[in-house]
Amino acid sequence: MLKPNLDERIQLGMKAIAVFPAKRDVELIDEPEPQIATPSDVKLRMLEVGVCGTDREICSFEYGTPPPGSEHLVIGHESIGEVVEIGSAVSRVKVGDLVIPMVRRPCPHAYCRACREGRQDFCFTGDFSERGIKERHGFMTELVVDDEQYMNIVPSSLRDVAILVEPLTIAEKGISEIWQVQQRLPWLAARDGEPDGTGHNAVVLGAGPVGLLGAMALVTRGFTTYVYSREATPNPKADLVTSIGATYVSASTDTLDDLVMRVGNIDVVYEASGASKASFDLMKGLGTNGIFVFTGVPGRKGPMEIDTDSIMRNLVLRNQVVFGTVNANRPAFEAAIADLEVFRRRFPTALSALITGRFAMDDYRSLLLGNATGIKNVIAIG
After folding, report:
1. Do residues 295 and 172 touch, judged by C-beta distance below 8 A?
2. Is the dihedral of CA 92, 95, 97, 103 positive or negative?
3. How far is CA 342 from CA 220, 336, 337, 345, 351, in A?
4. Which of 205, 229, 282, 317 is deepest in the core (most CB within 10 A)?
5. Considering the entire predicted model, what is its pTM?
6. Distance between CA atoms of 304 and 294, rounded to whole angstroms?
């Protein structure tokens, strides 16, 4: 059952945070309550929605597309909700379950094999939609209806950190692809009983939520992990990195060349900064048989100079691989939920410290339009 105070609000319309691209405005609006429309639909009472760089960029009108026929887009794609109603054919979830909805929805084209096989994260037509980002309303509202196939159940024990699942899926998908790529060669193998990454060095570029979660994932897989970020030490992020068994290196004291000398052969670079110049400069230091994973999307800036000869030479002579990764599939969500349970056991204080503030919906303007602060800020809805 819905909580009484929410029932009362619904009579006046439920609250939602939306962008209006045409008039370049961000507003807290009233929306009609969504209804179960198909047998496989699930209605969620949204509990929390994370605020990330994508939301802030949409609110700066860099991108973000409302659904067809709508002048506004309800934002928010990092979320956790509670199931409050289900359609007659729903079998994967039940009322009371905590769930994390997936973000991307498949394109409509029969010839897109990726979307037809449930891998819309690899859609090759570009006609997919994304909740809170592209042509489909997001989760920064009180109630949401979506198909059960996009729901991922979360244990109640993770309720306070489950909002981190979606950003962690970026690392999960990237690491999964790393293993698939490295099957092409006799990569250094861990001894029996050791994590698969043992004996390998990883550098995480950036100490935001995606970078820090990626560092946790790499550490638990046995990688000797370094996090390279701009902030001078001491700082809370450096302390957090140290507490999980990784090494924090500050760009204020160490150049990228210093970092490469310190690490030695860099087997993996997990880029989570969106800083294109630093990324391509670091690519020159990628080691033999190394993999460079791009996850950040840089803002639109002017052209820059890069040493293309060195990068190309290294890619060929050192058997290197560079790939980008975006969005995630169900296995990545399931892996993220499982890893959060591992992080909770191994790094309980560090994991909780990633969430630096919970705020009411009324605080939306400062969170979305003000200066970014903390690591992960969350809007508490339910």
Report:
1. no
2. positive
3. 8, 10, 9, 5, 10
4. 205
5. 0.93
6. 18
